Amino acid sequence: MKELENHILEYRSGLIARDSFKHHHVKWGVYEQRKDGLYMVRSRMPGGKITVNQLREVANLAKIYGSGRLHISTRQEFQLHEIPLANLLTVIAKLNSIGLSSFAGGGNTVRNIVVSEWSGIKIGVPELSIFAESLTKLFLDDEDSIKLPRKFKIGFFYHDEVDNGRFQDLGFVLNEGGDSFKVYAGGGFGRNPSSGILLEEKISFNQVYETAKSVRTLFYKHGNRENRNEARLRYVLFKHGEERFRALYNEILANVKKSENPKLDYSLKFNNSNNVSILIPIICGDISSGRVLELAGLLDGLGDDVVRLTQDQNIRLRDIPTKYQEELTGKISNLFAPVLKYAVSCSGVETCRLGITDSRNLLRIINSVLSEKHLNSDIKIRISGCSNSCGNHLNADIGLAGKKGRYAVYVRSQPDSGLVPIGQLLGEIKEEDVPEFIKQSIEIFEEIKNKRNEWKSHIEALLKRFHGE
Questions:
Q1: What is the Cα–Cα distance from 422 to 166, expressed in whole angstroms?
Q2: Is the pLDDT assigned to residue 419 strictly greater than 60?
Q3: What angle do CA 444, 448, 449 make, to 5 degrees?
Q4: Which residue, 70, 106, 274, 438, has fewest beta-carbon neighbours within 10 Å?
Q5: Mean pLDDT score, 301-320
Q6: Which pLDDT belongs to residue 60?
Q7: What is the pLDDT of residue 415?
Q8: CATH architecture group of domain 30-106+284-335
Q9: For 224, phi and psi rounded to 5 degrees?
Q10: Looking at the domain covering 124-258, what would its CATH class be?
Q11: How far apart are CA 307 and CA 277, in angstroms?
Q12: Has residue 469 got a pLDDT over 80?
């Protein structure tokens, strides 16, 4: 952290320019916000895992040094917003003191490793969080992990979540037997979205590190360092084709196997209890420090491993004894207003310098016009404030990408369509029409639940009605 301290001193003294300072601070999970002098700090939390005590302390940091709220990202980590430059080092040091870190939280690094939110909840299959935690430790001790051509995203999922694995740079999907992983590589959303290739049909748990290191090394050696717009792993796949990509991987894997590698430390855990999980939907992933502190108080005494942040920007409680379920659920419902369960928004113009539209506020308006019946829907709605896919709009039943005064509308292919489930552009809609459009879309979604192959045609017809056709 001494390196970051030196760069802050140089920047404050005028010895380095803003762009140069940015190059140094992003790898510490620090990003400049729209208002000059204020920054966001992103804390790594492999698999969204955070203890109750850490939850309390992070809330206090946001309250004392920042905006007084926390933001849950789609990579299952907390962001602290509006931190003054003078407080950056203090906040990062205090995160370190409670067992958290912002290091490699941004920039051209191995980003926070995500894990199925059902990890440790599904019965009879191993918990996946341990793989994310152990792999994070090994990779962050390796300098190559912070000097990549672009960001590198890894995830661990169960066999019924294969699409989540296919759209990571590197996705591990537990096979149905529960004793091995399928491995996908080269997937991702954003510019030129693509489903990853099946790189390995079956690897043992002991092969996870050597497989991950080999794919990361392939990216390190062959990724595009000249053009950031074509620098993700999938562009290596596009350039070389699957056959050559696979040959490069196998060549690197053979060399990795010959070298002395650190051991991936994992101890398998299985959920064989009758304990329950409780989902807490969070509007826009934004939660005040006060609410977090109250939640931490409710969870005291239930154990340290009961909280997970989800990729849908929610909080999922796990391993809750059934005898506490009714009382805890009642108290949580008093603490948090009902909102759409699976609605996601990026930060938009509220804090992001690249944002075009106020995606967060749009989602708040959408929630405000929906009835309780609508809010109980399982529909996945995801909003990005620009064409970048920070809100994962290409992975949603209804995806919206911000333009000036309008939103592009995307609909994901359904599992029985035979198509790769990437959002397909259907058209555009005026920003002021979006709340009513979403309301009517939810009504259609609930009406045709058993006929999901009709979803795209229904939404196309709805868009035409909004266009007066």
A1: 11
A2: no
A3: 110
A4: 274
A5: 95
A6: 98
A7: 52
A8: Alpha-Beta Complex (3.90)
A9: -80, 110
A10: alpha beta
A11: 10
A12: no
DSSP symbol at 275: -
Placement of tokens 């009504």 in the chain: 443
- What is d(CA 210, CA 212) in angstroms, rounded to the nearest whole number? 6
Exposure class string for 58-73: b at 16+ Cβ within 10 A, else e = bbebbbebbbebbbbb
Tell me what pLDDT residue 414 has: 62
Element (DSSP H or E) covering residue 24:
helix 18-25
Q: Which two tokens stand for residue 201?
A: 């049909």
Q: What three-state secondary structure class fits 451? A: coil
Would the pLDDT of 382 be above 60?
yes
- Structure tokens belonging to residue 282: 């969070």
How much is the pLDDT for 34? 84
* Confidence check: pLDDT of 244 > 70: yes
Q: Do residues 84 and 35 make contact, with C-beta atoms less than 8 angstroms apart?
A: no
CB proximity list for 263: less than 8 A, separation 6 or greater: 209
**To 5 degrees, how large is the angle CA 316–CA 278–CA 394?**
45
User: What tokens appear for 181 in the block?
Assistant: 């992983």
Structural tokens at position 442: 């939810």
211 and 247 Cβ atoms separated by less than 8 Å: no
Weakest-pLDDT range from 46-50, 202-206, 255-259, 389-393 = 389-393
Tokens of 72: 């849950």
Neighbouring residues of 149: CB distance < 8 A, sequence distance ≥ 6: 108, 219, 220, 223, 224, 225, 231
Query: Residue 211: enclosing H or E segment and its boundaries?
Result: helix 208-222
The Cα–Cα gap between 306 and 53 comes to 11
3-state secondary structure of 183: strand
Residues 6+ apart with CB under 8 A from 241: none
What gap in Å lies between CA 454 and CA 241, rounded to an integer? 34
- As a CATH number, domain 342-466 is 3.30.413.10
Fold match, 30-106+284-335 / 342-466: no
What is the average per-residue pLDDT within 52-68? Answer: 98
What CA–CA distance (Å, rounded) separates 429 from 405?
A: 9
> What tokens were used for 460?
């196309």
Q: What is the per-residue pLDDT across 125-157, written as a single tens digit (0 to 9) for each?
A: 999 999 999 999 999 999 999 999 999 999 999
> What pTM was computed for the model?
0.94
- Adjacency order of strands within the sheet including 315-320: 276-280, 315-320, 307-309
Dump the DSSP string for 327-349.
Answer: HHHHHHHHHS----TEEEE--GG
